[in-house]
Each structure stands twice: as structure tokens, then as C-alpha cells.
């Protein structure tokens, strides 16, 4: 398994592919790692259930839309993470930025560009989810890379069409797929880890709810 020093070095040297944001909305998410019992874990949230929201309850990274008062896109991710989990990332270890992704729906691009910034926590934290978050999970990196956890997940918003996903717990709805899956794949590619997952691109990976980031 890849170690933190290697992740630091490779993400530090990574030159992320940044998309043109002119005339597009922007959002930003935080990929947060921690060390737990000599193992690295990645943080995911389960979005709260909201009636009328077909994407409620899905697994995601903390984050959301960039507001007009956010000085840059990284601050947007840190502000949203603070709001959603009461987790301060401004003084956490910044590891680097992952490639931007374009929001999609039904395989069609939307006018939304999503950035992803990676962090490592160097201290124990207590998370306090707000109304947007049903639950959160710390998932060991080996769990994300285990072929036994690779699944095809039916999209409720695309007529049950299956998309690549990763089962992250025994709870049926705890499957990482869509936009978040694509960021997980991009992270492992950036740090030089072979996932064993099928190669996916923006036209086939799908995006469960690219325009719902709040």
C-alpha cells in the first residue's frame, strides 16, 4: 500500500488538468485523509435524505458551490467542509489538487466545473455533521482498492443504468459512484496506484448529481 510520504511527493509534483471556468458555475470538494492505526483512511459523507431530491442519501466528499465571497476555489472547499462537518481544513496539511471534472447528466456536459483539493489531518478530530449530512465514514484505502468491493451501481436518476462504483460498507446505500468515484480514480492515478478498476472517462462515468452541490 502506498505511504503518506509517497502521496505527498506525487501529489506535490502533480500538475492537475484545470478546466476553463469562464461562463461556468464552480464547485469544490475536499478529499480528506487521516492516519489510523498505521493505515490511511479517506473521508466520505452520506448526504442527508430530502424529499424530492433524487440524489439524497448518496456518498460524496464534503464540498459545494463556490460563493461570490470565496476568494478562490480552495477556500470554497474548506468553507463547505467547515459548514457540513465542523472540520477546519485551513490549518490541515494540504497535499495538492486533483484534476478538475465537468459536471454531467445523462452523459451530457453541464455548465459546472468541480475542483478537488486533497488534505491530510495531522491531529485527531471530532466531526459534527450539519443538516446536509446524514452520516460520515472513514474508509481505509485498501478497502477502496479491493477488487471485491468494485460493483456496478444502478443510477436511480438514469433509469437504473449501472455505473462503476465502490462498496464502502455493509450498508446497501454506501456505494461511492458518479462524480465522487471519478475523483477517487483521479486521486489514485495521480499518486501512481493501480486500482484495477475499468478505465472510465467523462462521457461514460456518469454523474449522479453534478448540479446539486450547495
Walk me through what this model shows.
This protein is α+β, with helices and mostly antiparallel strands and 214 residues long. The protein has one domain: Nucleoside Triphosphate Pyrophosphohydrolase. The protein is 19% helix and 35% strand. It has four helices and ten strands, in the order H-E-E-E-E-H-E-E-E-H-E-E-E-H. The strands form two sheets. Strands 1, 2, 3, 4, 5, 6 and 7 form a seven-stranded mixed beta sheet that branches. A three-stranded antiparallel beta sheet has the order 8-9-10. Strand 8 and strand 9 form a beta hairpin. It is globular, with a radius of gyration of 16 Å. The C terminus is likely disordered.
List keywords for this structure.
214 residues, alpha+beta, Nucleoside Triphosphate Pyrophosphohydrolase, 3-stranded antiparallel sheet, 4 helices, 10 strands, 35% strand
Secondary-structure content class = alpha+beta
Which architecture name does CATH use? Answer: Alpha-Beta Complex
Termini separation (Å)?
34 Å
The radius of gyration is: 16 Å
Report the total helices. Answer: 4
Tally of domains: 1
Residue-averaged pLDDT: 87
Q: Indicate the CATH class.
A: Alpha Beta
User: What are the low-pLDDT stretches, counting only 5+ consecutive residues below 50?
Assistant: 199-212
The CATH H-level homologous superfamily: Nucleoside Triphosphate Pyrophosphohydrolase
The H-and-E topology, N to C, reads as: HEEEEHEEEHEEEH
Strand residue content: 35-45%
Main sheet characteristics: 7 strands, mixed
Named CATH topology:
Nucleoside Triphosphate Pyrophosphohydrolase
What is the helix fraction of residues, given as a range? 10-25%
Number of strands: 10
- Global geometry: globular
Amino acid at each position: 500500500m502506498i505511504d503518506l510520504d509517497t502521496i505527498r511527493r506525487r501529489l506535490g509534483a502533480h500538475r492537475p488538468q484545470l478546466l476553463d471556468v469562464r461562463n461556468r458555475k464552480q464547485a469544490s470538494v475536499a478529499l480528506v485523509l487521516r492516519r489510523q492505526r498505521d493505515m490511511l483512511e479517506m473521508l466520505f459523507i452520506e448526504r442527508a435524505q430530502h424529499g424530492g431530491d433524487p440524489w439524497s442519501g448518496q456518498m460524496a466528499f464534503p464540498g459545494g458551490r463556490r460563493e461570490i465571497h470565496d476568494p478562490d476555489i480552495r477556500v470554497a472547499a474548506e468553507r463547505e467542509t467547515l459548514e457540513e462537518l465542523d472540520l477546519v481544513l485551513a490549518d490541515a496539511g494540504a497535499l495538492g489538487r486533483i484534476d478538475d471534472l465537468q459536471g454531467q447528466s445523462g452523459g451530457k456536459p453541464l455548465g459546472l466545473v468541480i475542483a478537488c483539493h486533497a488534505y491530510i489531518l495531522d491531529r485527531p478530530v471530532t466531526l459534527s455533521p450539519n443538516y446536509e449530512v446524514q452520516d460520515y465514514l472513514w474508509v481505509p484505502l485498501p478497502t477502496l482498492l479491493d477488487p471485491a468491493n468494485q460493483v456496478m451501481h444502478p443510477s436511480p436518476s438514469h433509469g437504473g443504468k449501472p455505473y462503476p462504483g465502490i462498496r464502502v460498507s455493509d450498508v446497501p446505500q454506501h456505494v461511492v459512484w458518479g462524480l465522487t468515484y471519478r475523483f477517487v480514480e483521479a486521486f489514485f492515478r495521480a499518486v501512481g496506484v493501480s486500482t484495477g478498476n475499468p478505465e472510465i472517462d467523462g462521457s461514460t462515468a456518469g454523474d449522479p448529481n453534478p448540479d446539486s452541490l450547495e
